[in-house]
Amino acid sequence: MESEDFDCVVVGAGIQGSFTAYHLAKNNKRTLLLEQFVLPHSRGSSHGQTRIIRKAYDQDFYTHMMEESYQLWSQLEKEAGVQLYRRTGMLLMGPEMGEEFLLYKNTMERNGIPTVTLDPAEFSAHIPHVNRCPGHAAIVDTTAGVLYADRALRTAQEVFQRLGGVIRDGEKVIDIKPGTPVTVTTASRIYRAKSLVITAGPWANILLSHTNLHLPLQVLKINVCYWRERTPGMYSVGKRFPCFLQMGSEEHHIYGLPANEYPGLMKICYHVGSETDPDERDRQTDRGDIAILSRYISRQFPGLVPVPAVVESCMYTVTPDHHFVLDCHPSHRNIVIGAGFSGHGFKFGPVVGKVLCELALGRMPSYDLSPFKIQRFPSHSKAAL
Ligand SMILES: Cc1cc2nc3c(=O)[nH]c(=O)nc-3n(C[C@H](O)[C@H](O)[C@H](O)COP(=O)(O)OP(=O)(O)OC[C@H]3O[C@@H](n4cnc5c(N)ncnc54)[C@H](O)[C@@H]3O)c2cc1C
How large is the average pLDDT for residues 196-209? Predict the structure, then answer.
């Protein structure tokens, strides 16, 4: 088989790989984006119509990265002439003195994120049809909103191609030979590149096994549940209902988005799922999360029927500390890894892509990447080095 040469090959056309490819093409690098499935597909982590975007975080470094991410999302909207973001605000609810709630509150205050604190009377006036848990406080991150995920993914890929980038879908990478150049083999072709970026989502460890590296990543199946409004429009984006994040209750970390993609149905999900093999996702049939959500909805959202009307599937790839992996391979510096987005990576797509592009080009990254380094998992990665 003859080989084809590129400056950079990116494996995985989810949101992180697509934005990495986009930035590489903007830097005039001849870039190939490889995807195992025919695009678009719904078997990874980046499909579905909506994601929450917010600056509210429990760590300054995420809030800082989100400042630029908002600018880059808006830049892509202008380049492509499409709307990718709708501002709704995000309601953060949790025990007033709870450790996690305070971390979010303090990060927002320190970083001057515009917020509104709602006392119980204001809460009832502004957030109708939601029962607040006793003892819980409520703050709104007014910068937050909804990202149109499928459209965003398609747009990043289209602009990448317009910039001269090449996408080959339906082409699974089956082997990687580290070196300079690095050689990437698919079922039908061989490619050589100065650098390789691996953004393979739930399949990251399968790809990394070709480079003798194993990361402590857990793949979880998430049941994406939509709940019917008793009165259509009650919790809709049109009526300016916000996104929400519920922390610190019996049901740790539940989040929701206003009814939008399926009129009359509100998306509310649990931020934890059950472990799965990414190639056998639907053999994982645990619905314990749905029982938790039903109980929560019966109590807090009286305007929703507490039985899901639609259940879709998606996967998280979770690290032990829930922080991303954004780093060069410890033994092969021209192999760059973006992995472990732990169920909160979509909103960072443009800025993650920028950082992975910088690493692939051997440039100094725009951010301090210490929280995202592989060496924070010494016991797991050492054996492979
Ligand atoms: C239900 C749900 C809700 C979420 N909500 C939010 C939210 O509100 N806000 C937020 O910011 N984030 C959210 N996230 C997280 C976010 O969607 C993910 O962090 C992000 O999509 C991860 O993207 P990725 O590119 O790393 O992975 P993926 O999208 O999985 O992309 C990896 C790609 O690599 C391809 N691939 C794998 N192996 C190979 C191979 N051998 N050869 C070629 N291609 C290969 C796969 O097919 C896949 O297309 C949510 C995730 C889920 C599942």
Answer: 98
